[in-house]
Specification:
Helices cover 38% and strands 17% of the residues. With 257 residues, it is of the alpha/beta class. The protein has a seven-stranded mixed sheet. The protein has a two-stranded parallel sheet with strand order 6-9.
Length: 257
C-alpha cells in the first residue's frame, strides 16, 4: 500500500521576510562510492546534463570510501573538468557504511534540498526534475522513487538479485516500509538533518530507519514512479555479509520502533 501523499500543510510562502525575493533553490546530490571507477563519469555526466537542461542550481558531493579501484582518482579528474563549485570530492579513508557516508556528505552540502541516489547507474538522473516538481506540487518534506506504482519497475535483475528482492519484500507487508528499499530520494535539508539525528543504523538499514523516523515525526512523503536498472559495470555491493547485516538490522528496527 503506497503512502498517503498528504497535502494538509499549505504551501509555504515564496517571499522571504522583508519583502526580498526568495533565493533560488539549490540541490545537493550525495553520491557515496566504492569501486565505481567506470560508473562515476557516466552518472556525473548524466546528472550535469539533467540539471543544466532543467536550469537547476546544483552541486554533486562524491563520498568515496577508500575505493581500491581508483574511483577517487576519477573523481578528482571530474572535479577539474566540471569545476570544484559543482563537483565536490569529500573522501574517507575506508569503507565505513552507507549511513555514515550520508552524514559525512551532509556536512559539506550547501543546498537547501538533498538528493540521495546510487552511483551505479541504477537510478537515472532523468527522474530528478520529476522529483522536484512533485515536491513543489505537494509541498512534501520527502519525495521517494517507487518501483511499485505507475510506470515504475525493475529491469536487468538476475536470479540472485530477484531472490534478494523477494527476501526484502517481506518487509513490504507493512505499509510503513513501502519506501525503504528505494535509495533514491529528495529531502528538505532540515528534514534530513533531523532524521539523521534520530537514526542509529549505519548500513543499508539506515534508509529504512529514516523512513520509519519520518513517519513517527509526521513528515509528508510524495512518490515518483522510477525504473530501476541493474548496474552495467562493476559488482553489486550486496554480498552475503551485507544481506545478513541487513536482516539483523531489520529485526533490530522491528524490535525498537
Amino acid at each position: 500500500m503506497a503512502s498517503k501523499e498528504a497535502s494538509r500543510t499549505p504551501p509555504r510562502s515564496r517571499r522571504e521576510p522583508g519583502g526580498r525575493a526568495p533565493r533560488q533553490d539549490k540541490y545537493s546530490v550525495l553520491l557515496p562510492t566504492y569501486n565505481e571507477r567506470e560508473n562515476l563519469p557516466l552518472i556525473v555526466w548524466l546528472l550535469v546534463k539533467s540539471f543544466s537542461e532543467s536550469g537547476i542550481n546544483y552541486e554533486i558531493i562524491i563520498i568515496d570510501d577508500g575505493s581500491p579501484d581508483g574511483t577517487r582518482d576519477v573523481a578528482e579528474q571530474l572535479e577539474k573538468i566540471y569545476g570544484s563549485d559543482k563537483i565536490l570530492l569529500r573522501p574517507r579513508e575506508k569503507k565505513l557504511g552507507l549511513g555514515t557516508a550520508y552524514i559525512h556528505g551532509m556536512k559539506h552540502a550547501t543546498g537547501n534540498y538533498i538528493i540521495i541516489m546510487d552511483a551505479d547507474l541504477s537510478h537515472h538522473p532523468k527522474f530528478i526534475p520529476e522529483f522536484i516538481r512533485k515536491q513543489k506540487e505537494g509541498n512534501f518534506d520527502i519525495v521517494s522513487g517507487t518501483r511499485y506504482k505507475g510506470n515504475g519497475g525493475v529491469y536487468g535483475w538476475d536470479l540472485k538479485r530477484k531472490l534478494i528482492r523477494y527476501i526484502r519484500a517481506i518487509s513490504l507487508f507493512f505499509s510503513v516500509f513501502i519506501h525503504v528499499l528505494i535509495l533514491y530520494r529528495l529531502y528538505r535539508k532540515e528534514v534530513l538533518q533531523k532524521l539523521i539525528e534520530k537514526c542509529v543504523s549505519k548500513g543499508y538499514v539506515f534508509q529504512m530507519e529514516m523512513i520509519v523516523r519520518a513517519r513517527q515525526l509526521n513528515y509528508t512523503i510524495g512518490e515518483v514512479p522510477i525504473s530501476f536498472v541493474d548496474r552495467v559495470y562493476g559488482e553489486s555491493k550486496l554480498g552475503g555479509n551485507e544481506i545478513v547485516a541487513f536482516l539483523k538490522g531489520l529485526l533490530t528496527l522491528f524490535a525498537t520502533t
